[in-house]
Design brief:
The protein is an alpha/beta fold. The chain has 15 helices and 20 strands. It binds 1-O-alpha-D-glucopyranosyl-D-fructose and calcium ion. Calcium ion binds next to loops. The site of 1-O-alpha-D-glucopyranosyl-D-fructose has 13 residues, from loops.
């Protein structure tokens, strides 16, 4: 890929506006709160901000259910606030990428209201309506990502409409060229407003296999939609058309585009990010965050035994697979994933900051674009909740209700929910140890993580050895070392922790004669570094704590240049 594009050596920071900073005391984050905090982003050194949805929305799925693509939801502010945020970011050479949610709209979007007004509606074919089966049941056996059938019956017209997510998120019909053109026009409107690109929500689900065939039956008795909806027959065609109709309309600008593609494989991901195909720049694939999940039931209590060696091996497989032509996104966290320190690191007070740094050093040593999710730069951890009333995410609430109907109790489900529920990542950003953690002066929409008293920006920004300061160094290094951006990748040692004794994780990057070796210890015990991985004369360009050649302390990470 061309390594000269503006975003190549930049790290992207994801803001979940609802939980980032509340400027008016209503307990919900907003645009003015972000404007007041842009210096935090500039200090950290990130080069791009990806903003989760701020559009008009009934907030059924926290804004991933949009009722007006060209309006800012009043909860977050106004278009004037938005323009001020764009200016504030651009002043600091930080670009802005918006969240594009066009596999589905809200059921309150005027398009859907018109489509649902009757079979003869001019917009009927903008969504996916089907007759019931002869016995009146749903057109196929698919299970929604948010539990239950993916079909909602409309009494008035006697038809069902498709919704892969909540019933308030009807799927758009991408087979209809009018739908596609309306979406492209909306995208151009945002680019016109100064936006520098898009993160495209479940963009690999937009092309469904004709006939919408049943999927293989999963643990809940309903079928998976992935086989018929993921990476479908016209997926690449639509991405290429979008590129021509939207991004090619601005030949003097280059944009950053990242597709969110659950269930994508290497071959499709390579096609998506191959610059010659002019589709998107990269995708978020889900293999590594699926290693500890049970397919079809992410909250299952029993979980595959996932070890850090598996994680390292999967990341290396994607490095290999994308090679010199494709481009990886590098992420451990986002608003849908649990906190990486809790999932793969070590939550104990003595080790959590160290493990946060070690995980960051591991991820950023790979070839691709790193993503930092709000709070990850502080080493925030999962929530310790035990009551259903503490959760807000409809993915959890729907799941518990569906299982209750099968006679299963919340108490029985809690261990599986606690580990990977999305509220883990959605608690308010922890700015200080004040009562509202500096996030709000009001009642936060979602309870603060009690760990906010110890884990917060005020205790870390400017404090040597903090997780924040380590991220600042790590992000700056990417701009200083071409080998970190352009170097090829070799996994020297995936073995991280075995029963008897831990071993070091080691990777090597090579570019134009320069080499960078990254070494990390993912255990509490000291580990030896084999001679061959610390060449004589190597220069330590990054270390999470004081290091002596030949040995790594517990959860330590080191980068060597040679
Ligand atoms: O998530 C898509 C996706 O992959 C989800 O099915 C994810 O697997 C799930 O949230 C966790 O099991 C995107 C958004 O990131 C998510 O917040 C939205 O809820 C979803 O699409 C629908 O828009
Ligand atoms: Ca607010």
């Amino acid at each position: 890929p061309q390594l000269d594009q503006w975003w190549r050596d930049r790290v992207v920071y994801q803001i979940y506006p609802r939980s980032f900073a509340d400027s008016n005391g209503d307990g919900i984050g907003d645009l003015r709160g972000i404007i007041e905090r842009v210096d935090h982003l500039a200090e950290l050194g990130v080069g791009v901000v990806w903003l989760s949805p701020i559009y008009a929305s009934p907030q059924d799925d926290n804004g991933y259910d949009i009722s007006d693509y060209q309006a800012i939801d009043p909860t977050f502010g106004t278009l004037a606030d938005f323009d001020e945020l764009v200016a504030a970011l651009h002043e600091r050479d930080i670009r802005l990428v918006m969240d594009l949610v066009v596999n589905h709209t809200s059921d309150e979007h005027p398009w859907f209201v018109e489509s649902a007004s009757g079979r003869e509606s001019a917009k009927r074919d903008w969504y996916i309506w089907r007759d019931p089966k002869p016995d009146g049941s749903e057109p196929n056996n698919w299970e929604s990502f948010f539990s239950g059938p993916t079909w909602q019956f409309d009494e008035a017209s006697g038809q069902y409409y498709l919704h892969l997510f909540s019933r308030k998120q009807p799927d758009l019909n991408w087979e209809n060229p009018q739908v596609r053109q309306a979406i492209y026009a909306m995208m151009r409107w945002w680019l016109q407003r100064g936006v520098d690109g898009f993160r495209m929500d479940v963009i690999n689900l937009i092309s469904k296999v004709k006939g919408l065939p049943d999927g293989p039956v999963g643990p809940t008795g309903r079928g998976s939609c992935f086989e018929a909806c993921a990476n479908g027959p016209r997926f690449h065609e639509f991405l290429a058309e979008m590129h021509r109709e939207v991004f090619d309309a601005y030949p003097d600008r280059t944009f950053l585009t990242v597709g969110e593609t659950p269930g994508i494989g290497l071959d499709d991901a390579l096609k998506c990010s191959d610059p010659a195909r002019r589709e998107v720049d990269m995708v978020f694939q889900f293999e590594h965050v699926g290693l500890d999940n049970n397919p079809g039931d992410k909250f299952a209590v029993e979980r595959p035994d996932m070890r850090l060696a598996d994680l390292a091996g999967n990341l290396a497989a994607w490095q290999e697979g994308m090679g010199e032509v494709g481009w990886n996104s590098l992420y451990f966290e986002n608003h849908d994933q649990p906190r990486s320190v809790s999932r793969w690191g070590d939550e104990a007070e003595e080790w959590r900051a160290k493990s946060a740094k070690a995980l960051a050093g591991m991820l950023h040593a790979h070839r691709g674009t790193p993503y930092v999710y709000q709070g990850q730069e502080l080493g925030m951890i999962n929530v310790p909740w035990t009551k259903l009333s503490e959760f807000r995410d409809l993915e959890v609430l729907n799941y518990v209700a569906a299982r209750a109907a099968e006679g299963r109790s919340f108490a029985e489900l809690l261990p599986g929910i606690a580990r990977v529920n999305r509220d883990n990542a959605r608690t308010p950003m922890q700015w200080s140890d004040e009562p509202g953690a500096g996030f709000t002066t009001g009642e936060p929409w979602l309870a603060l993580n009690p760990a906010a008293r110890e884990i917060n920006a005020a205790a870390q920004v400017g404090v040597a050895g903090s997780v924040f300061e380590f991220y600042r160094e790590l992000i700056a290094l990417r701009r200083e070392l071409p080998v970190l951006v352009a170097g090829d990748f070799e996994l020297l040692s995936p073995a991280l922790i075995d029963a008897e004794r831990p071993t070091v994780w080691a990777v090597r990057r090579t570019f134009e004669g320069e080499q960078l070796t990254a070494l990390a210890n993912f255990s509490r015990e000291d580990v030896d570094i084999p001679e061959q991985w610390w060449p004589a004369g190597a220069e330590v360009v990054l270390t999470s704590e004081d290091v002596t050649a030949g040995q790594l302390r517990g959860w330590q990470v080191v980068y060597l240049r040679h």
